[in-house]
């Protein structure tokens, strides 16, 4: 899942939004995006017909849903799917074949060049104290890191922010590892907010360390869980600054290193990693469509990202989002609905370390002068559905919020402003959809396994997964029927 989760604190609620006439008036003055039709249906309040339609979708999902078995194949047979890998290509072929088998009106690929980073075979970390006595600790390379070129041994300076590194004297940093040890803020109710408050040290830590002459960056894993699973994730480099290795320590290892540093500030850390970056590889977004019966030129996109990190199967991040997106279209067909607007499922490539697939999808949408009513992304895991987060003008948020009562029987009626998804965000500048929407599920356990070897199929509950797909299909049904 990517990178910064934003707008998590926007929770004023639909009631407050309805009381903002000035904002709504401004929204109505917004220029029409290219391709918008002259006559456009208005979102309506829910009625019993809609309630019965949604019940059909949920019945189909719970009694005959295919998401869980599709996920079993994707994770168990194909496995980790880092961009540029042979498994990523296998996943592309699987996604295309699965959508063709489902009978969508059109299935096709969008070519995109993606980065190809390889972890390599050896990852080893050791705390070295007096008389070279060592304690091995769990580590993993951060995505995109350079290797160590053999064993790299140096002293350690512990910090809790990027700003702290900037303010340290030269002798405290030069020739050492900078150890970023800022934990999650566990007082925050939304784990995504805690992630957003800590992830800058992973993304930018190596750059700030290298600026001060450090030999590498060690980063506390992005989780509140205390365990021995190091969490990988994207890090960045600046071409004007030397590239130094970046590695994640498990939370238990970080706690241990911090404790030992207090007892012996002169201890050292030995790191060995063989990761490298190869030339870009050709890959693809996978796209499946059901053509709209009344407004075929109006598009509703739903998607997840097909790539995953290489440590595990990428079940919750983001295999669940992929199978739910395909399932949403299948559910509509199986329940006998003919969407009035074109519905498009997209399996995006390269969200984890570049977002090349999302950028290319938006570029092509702009090139083809497409009109997107809305785009929905599932990239927060396949846990129990809670509702949707919305990036839209206040008046549009208010329209969507009118449908909340329909989702209450399924405990998924949250419809408030918030981050939508990394893959669909480029659409905002390219084609100005009426709304960008994120599938929201119970995220309390998500960062326990996020970007780790523990993100496996057995962590996914079948009913939770199928309920999420039905919720997404239900929102698509309403968007297709009423527009925005």
UniProtKB/TrEMBL annotation:
<keyword id="KW-0732">Signal</keyword>
<keyword id="KW-0479">Metal-binding</keyword>
<dbReference type="InterPro" id="IPR007484">
    <property type="entry name" value="Peptidase_M28"/>
</dbReference>
<keyword id="KW-0482">Metalloprotease</keyword>
<feature type="domain" description="Peptidase M28">
    <location>
        <begin position="285"/>
        <end position="467"/>
    </location>
</feature>
<keyword id="KW-0645">Protease</keyword>
<keyword id="KW-0333">Golgi apparatus</keyword>
<keyword id="KW-0378">Hydrolase</keyword>
<keyword id="KW-0458">Lysosome</keyword>
<protein>
    <recommendedName>
        <fullName>Carboxypeptidase Q</fullName>
    </recommendedName>
</protein>
<comment type="subunit">
    <text>Homodimer. The monomeric form is inactive while the homodimer is active.</text>
</comment>
<dbReference type="Pfam" id="PF04389">
    <property type="entry name" value="Peptidase_M28"/>
</dbReference>
<dbReference type="InterPro" id="IPR039866">
    <property type="entry name" value="CPQ"/>
</dbReference>
<keyword id="KW-0325">Glycoprotein</keyword>
<keyword id="KW-0964">Secreted</keyword>
<feature type="signal peptide">
    <location>
        <begin position="1"/>
        <end position="25"/>
    </location>
</feature>
<keyword id="KW-0865">Zymogen</keyword>
<keyword id="KW-0862">Zinc</keyword>
<keyword id="KW-0121">Carboxypeptidase</keyword>
<keyword id="KW-0256">Endoplasmic reticulum</keyword>
């Amino acid at each position: 899942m990517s990178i910064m989760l934003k707008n998590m604190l926007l929770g004023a609620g639909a009631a407050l939004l309805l009381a903002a006439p000035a904002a709504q008036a401004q929204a109505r003055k917004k220029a029409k995006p290219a391709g918008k039709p002259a006559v456009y249906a208005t979102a309506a309040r829910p009625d019993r017909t809609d309630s019965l339609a949604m019940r059909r979708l949920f019945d189909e999902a719970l009694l005959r849903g295919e998401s869980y078995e599709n996920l079993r194949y994707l994770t168990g047979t194909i496995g980790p799917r880092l961009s540029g890998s042979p498994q990523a290509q296998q996943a592309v072929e699987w996604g295309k074949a699965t959508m063709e088998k489902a009978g969508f009106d059109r299935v096709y690929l969008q070519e995109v060049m993606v980065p190809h980073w390889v972890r390599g075979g050896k990852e080893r970390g050791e705390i070295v104290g007096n008389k070279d006595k060592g304690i091995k600790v769990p580590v993993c390379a951060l995505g995109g890191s350079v290797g160590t070129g053999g064993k790299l041994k140096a002293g350690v300076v512990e910090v809790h922010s990027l700003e702290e590194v900037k303010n340290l004297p030269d002798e405290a940093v030069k020739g050492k590892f900078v150890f970023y040890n800022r934990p999650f803020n566990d007082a925050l109710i939304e784990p995504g907010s805690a992630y957003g408050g800590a992830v800058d040290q992973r993304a930018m830590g190596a750059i700030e360390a290298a600026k001060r002459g450090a030999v590498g960056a060690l980063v506390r894993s992005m989780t509140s869980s205390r365990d021995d699973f190091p969490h990988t994730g994207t890090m960045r480099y600046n071409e004007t600054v030397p590239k130094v290795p970046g590695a994640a320590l498990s939370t238990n290892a970080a706690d241990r290193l911090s404790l030992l540093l207090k007892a012996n500030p002169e201890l050292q850390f030995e790191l060995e990693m063989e990761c490298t970056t190869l030339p870009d590889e050709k890959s693809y977004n996978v796209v499946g469509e059901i053509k709209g019966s009344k407004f075929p030129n109006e598009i509703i996109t739903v998607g997840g990202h097909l790539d995953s990190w290489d440590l595990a199967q990428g079940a919750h991040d983001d295999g669940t989002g992929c199978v739910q997106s395909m399932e949403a279209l299948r559910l509509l067909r199986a329940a006998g609905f003919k969407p009035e607007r074109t519905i498009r499922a997209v399996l995006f490539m390269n969200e984890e370390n570049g977002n090349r697939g999302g950028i290319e999808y938006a570029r092509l949408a702009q090139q083809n002068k497409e009109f997107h009513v809305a785009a929905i992304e599932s990239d927060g895991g396949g846990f129990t559905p809670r509702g949707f987060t919305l990036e839209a003008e206040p008046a549009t948020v208010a329209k969507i919020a009118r449908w909340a009562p329909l989702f209450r029987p399924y405990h998924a009626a949250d419809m408030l402003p918030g981050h939508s998804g990394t893959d669909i965000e480029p659409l905002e500048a390219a084609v100005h959809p009426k709304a960008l929407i994120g599938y929201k599920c119970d995220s309390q356990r998500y960062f326990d396994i996020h970007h780790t070897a523990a993100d496996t199929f057995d962590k996914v509950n079948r009913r939770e997964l199928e309920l999420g797909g039905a919720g997404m299909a239900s929102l698509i049904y309403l968007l297709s029927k009423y527009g925005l």
